[in-house]
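Why do we care about 3D structure at all? Because function follows from shape, and shape follows, mostly, from sequence. That is the central idea of this module. The next example makes it concrete: a single protein chain, its amino acid sequence, and then its structure expressed as tokens.
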Amino acid sequence: MNDKKDYLLLSQLAQAGYCLRRAALIMNEQLWNESADTAKGRIEHNRVHTQRVERRGKEVKLYEYTVFSDTLGITGKCDCIEASADEAGCRIPSVDFPVRLFPVEYKHGKVRAEEEYELQLCAQAMCLEEMYHTAIPEGALFYTSSHRRYLVPLTEELRGKVRRMIAILQDIRERMITPKAEYGAKCMRCSLRELCMPKVQASAEKYCKELELEAKEAGRL
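And the structure:
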């Protein structure tokens, strides 16, 4: 891993998938506010986030596993990597036989399709593929409240979205940009809602446009 490189975090990719403005507020302005949902999710994650290796015969689970990609410029930790014996697989530290890798990301709530989580999971797999010269066609999101998995095919389309989102995030960080708010249903669930004030920004922008229109109309009289 190149220590001189300023990597993005996998968690920032998930934040950006939910809302670019939220990601910028956290990344560039160091803002954070915890809600009941984020607190519960953090507590549930803490139960998983203990770095350890569990073995059952030819099945190994690696928790809190650090990954990185020099190509993507991203790093972070996988909640869990399931490594299963496979003669056509790859070699990784702590396991003395070849394995195929299956990343699992733990999330709070009920099973649902959430693109921001899929982006994060796919980026983890892309890091592992680069680190261990292997192919990972799929992974899973494990929802702690329902104790169920949501299988995620790691398609070329999803990988392309990961690359594009990383490029956008890098630009936001380098130019210290905070995108404008786009008020929607997701704003009501956002823990940064009161810091972001999406409605206020939208109202102010509308008011300025009305003033501009009035000024133009007055100039034609």
